[in-house]
Design a protein that fits this description.
Helix 6 (161-169) packs across helix 8 (182-206) and helix 8 runs parallel beside helix 10. This protein has helices at residues 3-11, 27-36, 42-49, 62-67, 139-148, 161-169, 171-180, 182-206, 227-233, 235-248, 266-272, 287-294, 309-312, 315-329, 349-361, and strands at residues 53-56, 69-70, 85-89, 93-95, 101-104, 111-115, 153-159, 210-214, 253-257, 276-278, 299-304, 335-339. It has 2 domains: 3-58 and 138-361, TIM Barrel; 63-118, no CATH class. By secondary structure, it is an alpha/beta fold.
Length: 365
């Protein structure tokens, strides 16, 4: 069974040979795993781990690339596209095509925000949005789709409206705007909706199978904003994005990603017609409970503990959690196994490898 068949059958809740696998890895971790397999080839690592997804990325415009370089630091999302295109500024600051500026912290493992381009504007007339129609945005994506489309499921990620809006405006400013400046919020979100509908249209036209709409709305024990506010501002636009895209191609799937506790809006996410929920952090929501409540309506992806088991457990603890998760969440399809967050440099490599080897061997689903 090919990786693509495995994932598609799983989403349709049909029997497969083994649970599909996914993972998101910090660049430092990825280098360690390549060292373990004694290869410089990313594809060799993916195949050895058994990862069934292949990601493609929207690049910044060719005009932006003329002023930018691939990021010189090993940090995801400090720039844009597969090569993390960014403009290098003084003091180790990096600027993306939207004007958001980030700076690596002293640990070198994460970055912090330095500038939000809409933080001080009074009107969106003061800001120029990137042009989705700019040439060159999807050239690299097309090449990778051509390479992998027959064997693997092709996915691509975009920020959700909440994440993208507060990145531009600033987190505190945007939360305040939700209550005090609704006209500004609606104008900003409508601009982002227009951009994302065109982005999704181009992605499905070039052959993307899954569009991942990502950005946290949950914290450890609660949501970042009330379900009422989320339903007011974000649910209608998510529905429009999903439904308009599925009218273009009805065999495209949508994944909703948010860390943390989002249980109050899972039924809304299903109603909107999302197909996959990610990552179901077990410290925040019980994966078995979520599977029982919603498993006949939405596929789960993730669920392996990144706060306890992977960083602090022994190899045997990882094996037990993987087997338990497959037994409780994967026997009737609708389940993709993965760490419930980015795998970080402090996670022991033996635990990482055990996760994937155990899942590949445990195929009685």
């Amino acid at each position: 069974m090919s990786s693509k068949e495995r994932v598609l059958k799983t989403i349709k809740r049909e029997k497969v040979d083994r649970v599909p696998l996914y993972g998101d890895f910090h660049p430092i971790v990825w280098k360690k795993i390549k060292g373990y397999y004694e290869t410089d080839d990313d594809e060799v690592v993916r195949k050895n781990l058994g990862i069934d997804f292949r990601m493609v990325f929207m690049d910044p415009s060719l005009e932006f690339k003329k002023r930018a370089i691939p990021s010189p630091v090993d940090l995801w999302d400090i720039g844009e596209g597969r090569d993390n295109w960014t403009i290098c500024l003084p003091d180790n600051v990096f600027e993306d095509e939207w004007g958001v500026r980030r700076q690596p912290t002293t640990s070198g493992q994460v970055w912090k925000y330095i500038r939000h381009p809409l933080s001080k504007v009074q009107s969106l007339d003061e800001y120029t949005f990137p042009d989705i129609e700019s040439p060159g945005r999807f050239n690299e994506a097309k090449k990778h789709i051509k390479m992998y489309k027959h064997e693997y499921i092709i996915s691509s990620e975009m920020w959700n409206f909440f994440k993208h809006a507060w990145e531009l405006r600033g987190f505190e400013n945007f939360l305040s705007d939700l209550y005090t400046n609704p006209s500004f919020v609606n104008e900003l979100l409508d601009k982002l909706l227009e951009f994302k509908i065109k982005q999704a249209k181009k992605l499905v036209e070039i052959g993307v199978d899954i569009i991942e709409v990502a950005g946290d709305i949950g914290m450890q024990n609660s949501m970042m904003l009330s379900p009422k506010l989320w339903r007011k501002y974000f649910k209608p636009r998510l529905r429009e994005l999903v439904q308009k895209t599925k009218r273009i191609r009805d065999d495209v799937y949508f994944l909703f990603h948010s860390d943390g506790y989002i249980k109050p809006v899972i039924s809304d996410i299903i109603e909107i017609s999302f197909d996959i929920l990610d990552p179901i952090q077990p410290e925040c929501m019980d994966p078995i409970e979520i599977k029982k409540l919603y498993g006949d309506k939405i596929t789960l992806r993730g669920t392996i503990s990144m706060q306890r088991t992977l960083p602090f457990g022994k190899v045997e603890d990882v094996k037990k959690e993987v087997i338990r998760r497959i037994e409780n969440c994967g026997k009737r399809g609708g389940f993709i196994l993965a760490p419930s967050n980015t795998v970080m440099p402090d996670d022991p490599i033996e635990n990482i490898l055990t996760l994937y080897e155990t899942a590949k061997e445990f195929n009685t689903i």
